[in-house]
């Protein structure tokens, strides 16, 4: 073979088929199948079908829409469309199996399969009446990737394949347009050079730029035939110089090499990165679609475009898209020329527009989802190049889902299942405060809604570098797939070029980042790390604000406000609420948090961390007094001072929650967390004035703090003196907290306001620990109620289950506890033996190297930690039928974990306020996904958990 | 009542019966019943029998030997002896139930029961023909405690009760011996004053001392009637002064108050301390034995003594004991006068001696155990006061058990069950090296065998204070029960007075401490903190050596040697080995450890910690090089240097173990443990000479160490980067270790020597971690074997189960691992969420306050951690039938934990070399205790685990 292979880091060259597969598989984040849309990643790879080419032409295709795994999304779509009578350029799909065989066969397509390539090209020749490599009327093809899950722009494509010095002449003759033929040829060579041979695009681009400068022309379209011939010559020289081989003239060599390049593109870094970001298994492989070229650049009766059947940003039911006349598809997607809105086509080519609208409407009904399509018009003939479910903003997704329910296209359950709960997050991000006054310094396209302020950076690396510490905005001429990590780390993206379907826009919408595209007024100078708007220069690190909903760019920070949630959103969430069995509570430590969560639909507080109240400026000195106390009496004195603060906090929270349950956890963190650092005290000691009359006293006081810090120092504070162990050794702390809770509750009760406190004892490992604390709770509660003359106050006493032993002995604990709340953060730490603070050193390595399938601090380790949760719940409920069981770790907001909680029969989940809508939706999806379990138990179980 | 009650700290005055019981019960270390001799602590307390007095007299008793719980050991013994026709002074026992009722009734005996006291005294009057309080021929009684388990000297006794100014005269008349009567009276008053009224003994003693000084006499026996009358007067004055009340003359008041004092003595601090040390439940209560006084001090035809049916120090079958003529029992036990060996009695009172020997021989056969008896001769009439199973040294216990099997008194299984495995420890302690030359500065009685060197201290407090830091020897005039904590903290005990049945001797033997008693040449001056032998003064903190087997006392440290284990010991252990199912291995890191363990019967190494080899002086710099390496190459270079060291160690260990399995664990501790402390490096930096040509280089090198220390710092190192997590991120470490192990094994294999390495991967939580390391092991092993041309080398690859997740997913892990070894230290830490290093702050509090029943780091937490062990074992064996499962945490040497391991079906336990015999015996006892389970599976299971 004449080409140099790109290095393939991730794949062992000599590995046998089976081994490679296992290895690749092992490297994938395979979360439980039930909770993902891609449920059978290995199916295609393990049983070979024996059929490796799927032909489609003239209304008849070998494949179907169902064969996404084998044909890729694009191939399956082409087959489906062909079968549906949609005008599609004929071609064939080489299956994903071949891709895996290629990787299993030392990066070569097995000979027998390779041999069949000619057969299928001959079939294509027969259908089109043209011949591949025919100097008179050459058949040209595109070679595109296509995997089961859409990975836009992630993989390589080669167009105009089949051109060489001879067929060039044929194409020119046949189209009677030498310039067109030459333009195609130079595009082909540069694409091939870039995609297949791995030569940087800029190398080719600079030849054109130089030619244009030499010729003093600005537009590519002004290049004359001679210019193009010169460019082609130079392109070929570049290839010869860079690879040591001549550009291949043989169309079959071109085809094979391009096919293999597509296969290899499956494992290029940006594809790997994309898959990692989107949880796509890496062993699926890509198919290769070989399809007859149609030309949108055959003059002004030709064109190309992309579109959506509804607005993918808002969900509005409007025909939406862009096109360019006399252009190839790449010109639209790459955002190099700014395209026309698709409605314009109705004026320019009314019958084509009508046909396009009719076909896409049919496609939407057929697929029962918004369609994202590509089309080309070749000399007044319409060809559909692709259709697929359209990526959309989550706002749009919800509107479309609700509309489609109303249009009776889909059911409510389907609507619920169509939204990735994680994406709801985006609805909840702030937008610009309409009352804010600001000057707009530039305007671009409103490519992805939301608003964000941040410091500007000009490369993906810089954003990644600074993005963790500060809000960063990525500013680029235009983005490309190499920028994906940077986009992920940014709060917003601003580009100077590109339309609303450009790379930046598509990716930003998917990521839920605010994005302004094609702001043509800005000039980006990446080398100098600045951009210019007229005379205004904005340098790296300066702050700007983007409004992704309007396309406005402002200097500095503009204030933002919480989003108004749409009517469709409420409607949609109410359907989720109808369906779900799990209750959704929130983790809230302040009245403000609680209020926010109530707005988002929280049904109670599942975790109120009292210690967070200890850190406030006016309280921390008292807390320190308590810790430094030499006697129970001194400690009591400090606690007496804390009591009114705690009580006031609880009163406010109870008021906000209006009778919904409020689970309050007694003091949990080790005491040293409340003390200053030793170094700080040392500085204070050094600053003491020895002439000060009180010098000795002050010194002694500070030295005492140091001594106490040293006393409290622990080798493994995670497993040290914290949680109920504090309340046991210092019962007066628990007493004060219970007093504050019950006094606050009595205040509401006496005003005849509903109140539902639940007191939660943390870090219980042995039932005796719980008993000890329960005795205090009951005693103090009775005392306070008697004093306040409140006869009846319903409150519960329960415990966190966060120590493995507590789960193992949950039957004993449940004899005393009225509710359980799984503290899955600590439970994960102890069950897996991972210190969350320290695990970074090996946990990232573990996940990257597939030692662990995913981060157990993000999603519950169902096989290990999950066993304890299921066991704890079952033993608990066996011992106490009306035991309420929930979860309040950070996993409470993770959809996969919520699915797990649903399956093991928990009553509620509790998560941060902003995750509440996500949890509500995920809980509904869990119910639908696991519907086969008993629907009957729903009502009773829900009643129980209220 | 005229007497002032002693304060009773531990008991709430107003608590109702039930509550007190629960509380007391909760304070007890209740280990699982199966593994303790006292299996039903609460039986007596929960159901009341309605009969509170048990009478015994003239060959007929209400009670039996089986009623120990109700009557206490002494009461049951008296009943049994009475029934057996043994001459016992008549009397009755007030049951332990009454004690508990007393505590439940505000420290008063319920009136109805109290009323019956007179009735039983009248019965006694009828049997003896004397009357209680009769001025002519008064009935005198002793009032003694007696609980289910023997607590020698722990509780209070009152003798001669019933004496007052009137009955004194009657006694004098009846015995025609006023001096005798007066002596009894003064004894009674001082005992009553001390025991019942809580006045210090010394207060009474000083009156006698003063009288003797005034009269210039040395012996108590030289005191004349007038002296005694003066003493009695002064005693009564003391009582009046100290209590504000007169000494009670009414015999029934005396009796009731004394009875209550005995009840209260159950909760005195030394009884509480004794129970805690001996794991005796605190809710058993004590019985009160009221028994007619017989007098050993009625002249030279009277006497008193104690004895054993066999030698309790050696086990030799010889009549053993001591007596004093014309003395009461207290004189013997308290060691105030040095008594005569019992064989002497054969000369002095041949018929009494014969009768005594015959009775005690019969008692031994009856009870099938060595008897510890007390007797009194009253004017040529023999009375047995008590008999019970004799406390003995463990050497004696083994000899007696083996002898009794030979005598067909007991079975082998009974013999095995009679020895507390914990006590075997004492056999394994060093004795003096016979080749050592030393001068004996004093000689006492050989009261408890073994030898020890240590610094001398003169109070229990001082021993407790220093005993943790240094070996301490307690030196006392004589010991008393208040010294018990000090004796426990000491390595040896030396007293100036008291015989081989004195308090010091009995307690020391029980504790397995070496003890020299009655070294009359020494004069102890506690106030000056020194003792004197002639002119030689030994001050606090100076070192002496005791030989408890000879009674010798030496200055300074005398070298010691390992004990020779007796023939009986081997015989006994061989029976244990016949019986047990569990294999016993040892934890050994060095050839020396391994050798020691083999001597003690270890059947393999269950844990060889390779990192301990890293700490040697010649290796640690290389280990540090490895840790500081900047690249895998540098790291490899350091590892290459370590390889030969590790290999050499393994060769030696394999040679010692002669083909027995050797489980080698790969590197476990976090790397920072191998680096110096940051402060040390800082000191080195400060010491650098700036003029040194290499200053910059040296500084940079040291700063690098600091940086690395900081990089390696972890918040919770227990849950950090350690165990297999190291071998995964740095595979070259595992590679080196495996290479060393397999090369060492090949060295033996090539010499045709048997070798059985088992490679153990630590801290596995997920099967993938194990897979990763196993791949390395297999690859390197194959490589080494190929290189060394060793075709067959049997080795196993297994894992520690020490992370809860590993136990939960043991089925998955067992698919890859060939053996499991439960690392119960870490498993306990993670399952219970206790950092062993930090738990002190609350764990002691937990145990003292019965939040936890016992220390889970000493004995496996069977309810929690035990569940994971059972689960891990069962899941593992289900997945791999021939999976070998053991335990190598420190629990491996704890008998209760061994019983647990037996019950859950482990194959082996591994413990420190010195615990191996204990483990062998405990394993045999576990088999016997759980014999009802399938005996049939024994053979096969044992074969499997070999």
Protein model, in words:
Two copies of one chain form a homodimer. Chain A has 946 residues and is an alpha/beta fold. Chain A has 38 helices and 34 strands. In chain A, the strands form seven sheets. In chain A, strands 15-25-24-17-18-19-20-16 form an eight-stranded mixed beta sheet. An eight-stranded parallel barrel of chain A has the order 27-28-29-30-31-32-33-34, surrounded by seven helices. A six-stranded antiparallel beta sheet of chain A has the order 2-1-3-8-6-7, with helices on both faces. In chain A, strand 21 (522-525) and strand 22 form a beta hairpin. In chain A, helix 29 (731-750) packs across helix 30 and helix 36 crosses helix 37. The longest helix of chain A is centred in the last third of the chain and has 26 residues, at 632-657. At the A-B interface, helix 28, helix 30, helix 31, helix 33 and helix 34 of A face helix 27, helix 29, helix 30, helix 32 and helix 33 of B.
Task: Furnish the topology, listing elements before pairings.
2 copies of one chain form a homodimer.
Chain A: H1 17-26, H2 43-46, E1 53-57, E2 60-61, H3 68-83, E3 91-94, H4 96-104, H5 111-128, E4 131-132, E5 138-139, E6 141-147, E7 157-161, H6 165-175, H7 178-196, H8 201-215, H9 225-243, H10 251-265, H11 269-278, E8 286-292, E9 303-308, E10 320-325, H12 329-333, E11 340-341, H13 343-348, H14 350-367, E12 371-378, E13 381-389, H15 394-406, H16 412-418, H17 421-424, E14 431-432, E15 440-443, E16 445-448, E17 451-457, H18 460-467, E18 472-476, H19 484-489, E19 492-495, H20 503-511, E20 514-517, E21 522-525, E22 530-533, E23 536-539, E24 543-547, E25 552-555, E26 560-561, H21 567-579, E27 583-587, H22 591-599, E28 605-609, H23 610-614, H24 620-628, H25 632-657, E29 661-665, H26 678-687, H27 695-712, H28 724-729, H29 731-750, E30 756-761, H30 767-788, E31 796-801, H31 804-808, H32 810-814, E32 819-822, H33 824-832, H34 840-848, H35 865-879, E33 884-887, H36 895-903, E34 908-911, H37 916-929, H38 937-945
Helix pairs in contact in A: 1-4, 6-7, 7-9, 8-9, 15-16, 15-21, 16-21, 21-37, 22-25, 24-25, 25-29, 26-27, 29-30, 36-37
